[in-house]
């Protein structure tokens, strides 16, 4: 893990900015982005192998009780208001210097200004993020996906973990959600949503910042789906508050769109014991999604108990979608529950699974670049692997 130093000690001095080359200044702006607007780790797909039963990968999986990693020194740096104020002053000075250069420099002598224009654009964009209304430590990002010719844009805010409060990991967006959102938007047919049916009901468990639900809601609306429902659920109060803000930012009121996207509390530990769940959990769901929601030993069973209760049974075909639970998990080399536990509770249909129970219908391994993450810069991790399980009722 590379530890980033503070802007006050890393950046070229404000009074000497004009002495540095456009290349050095561009590097300095990129450095600030790592702190204030990093990409989500492991989101660029570089390979996609459809592989059922690739169990050797799963043996490199994660220890029960351990947790997704966050970098506390980076979060402390991001939340440091003095450092942020310095970064804002530095960027303001840079933008003003570059403006002057562009105004007075002789284009013929400099062989064009494209480097300076790029630098100005990058510095201004980062300045807007650092100086925005969001409080210190928050990151607001725009995720862009493409469904054919239709662009789907999602704006999300991640908030800092509360005093490194582990249960609030959902206040940040994780790579699994980026990957699942991208897969859904680019290839909805894989999820039986190529021609989204009227009245489709979708549930997301452990939605965190809401990327999957928002992207899906926008996609379904763009594809003209009628009367659909997307429920983004989580259990931690600060995660739910941030989720609600993100939904409101993406579907500003009055939201008259045909597919509704809303947030609700659903605790996997408690829900299965409820006798008569109230609306909106009193009706089953055609599709259930979960991104990076299995990282403590008990999660596998809790989530399974919820899915058993909430996934529509195949013998009630109210909607033309095969009921399925799509689960994406990262294969972290040092963290979380052993993935093999997933295959224990959802055996492959061919492996003597009980008729009528939940089984793994397919398993894909997806390899992504670990780019955009400070933790990968030590050169140790270049790729992140994810597994996509499609789970459904045993045929
Ligand atoms: C690693 S985060 C993933 C969040 C999001 N799916 C993503 O990929 O960005 C795990 C999520 O599961 C939620 N979670 C953990 N335990 C839960 C429980 N018992 N009931 C409901 N949600 C839970 C957390 O609040 C968090 O949002």
UniProtKB/TrEMBL annotation:
Any GO molecular function: methyltransferase activity
Superkingdom field: Eukaryota
Transferase in keyword set: yes
GO process terms (BP): methylation
Keywords noted in UniProt: Methyltransferase, Transferase
Pfam families on file: Methyltransf_16
PANTHER family reported in the protein's UniProt record: HEPATOCELLULAR CARCINOMA-ASSOCIATED ANTIGEN, S-ADENOSYLMETHIONINE-DEPENDENT METHYLTRANSFERASE OF THE SEVEN BETA-STRAND FAMILY
Name this polypeptide is given: Methyltransferase-domain-containing protein
């Amino acid at each position: 893990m590379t530890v980033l130093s503070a802007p006050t000690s890393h950046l070229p001095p404000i009074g000497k900015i004009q002495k540095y080359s456009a290349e050095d200044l561009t590097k300095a702006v990129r450095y600030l982005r790592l702190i204030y607007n990093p990409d989500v780790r492991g989101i660029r797909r570089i390979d996609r192998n459809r592989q059922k039963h690739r169990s050797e990968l799963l043996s490199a999986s994660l220890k029960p009780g351990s947790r997704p990693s966050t970098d506390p020194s980076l979060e402390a740096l991001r939340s440091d208001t003095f450092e942020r104020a310095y970064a804002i002053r530095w960027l303001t000075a840079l933008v003003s210097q570059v403006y002057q250069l562009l105004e007075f420099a002789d284009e013929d002598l400099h062989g064009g200004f494209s480097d300076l224009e790029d630098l100005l654009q990058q510095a201004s964009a980062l300045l807007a993020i650092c100086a925005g209304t969001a409080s210190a430590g928050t990151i607001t990002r725009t995720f862009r996906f493409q469904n054919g010719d239709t662009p789907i844009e999602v704006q999300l805010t991640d908030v800092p973990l509360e005093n490194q409060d582990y249960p609030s990991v959902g206040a940040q967006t994780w790579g699994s959600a980026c990957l699942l959102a991208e897969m859904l938007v680019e290839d909805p047919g894989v999820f039986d949503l190529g021609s989204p049916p009227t009245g489709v009901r979708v549930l997301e468990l452990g939605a965190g910042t809401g990327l999957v639900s928002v992207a899906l809601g926008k996609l379904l609306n763009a594809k003209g789906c009628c009367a659909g429902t997307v429920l983004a659920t989580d259990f931690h109060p600060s995660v739910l508050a941030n989720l609600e803000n993100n939904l409101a930012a993406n579907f500003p009121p009055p939201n008259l769109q045909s597919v509704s996207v809303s947030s609700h509390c659903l605790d996997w530990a408690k829900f299965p014991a409820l006798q008569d769940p109230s609306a909106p959990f009193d009706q089953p769901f055609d599709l259930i999604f979960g991104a990076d929601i299995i990282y403590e030993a008990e999660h596998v069973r809790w989530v399974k108990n919820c899915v058993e209760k909430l996934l529509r049974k195949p013998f009630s075909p109210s909607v033309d979608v095969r009921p399925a639970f799509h689960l994406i998990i990262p294969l972290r080399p040092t963290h979380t529950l052993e993935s093999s536990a997933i295959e224990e509770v959802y055996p492959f249909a061919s492996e003597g699974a009980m008729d009528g129970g939940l089984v793994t219908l397919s398993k894909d391994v997806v390899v992504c670049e670990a780019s955009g993450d400070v933790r990968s810069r030590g050169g140790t991790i270049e790729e992140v692997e994810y597994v996509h399980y499609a789970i459904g009722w045993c045929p």
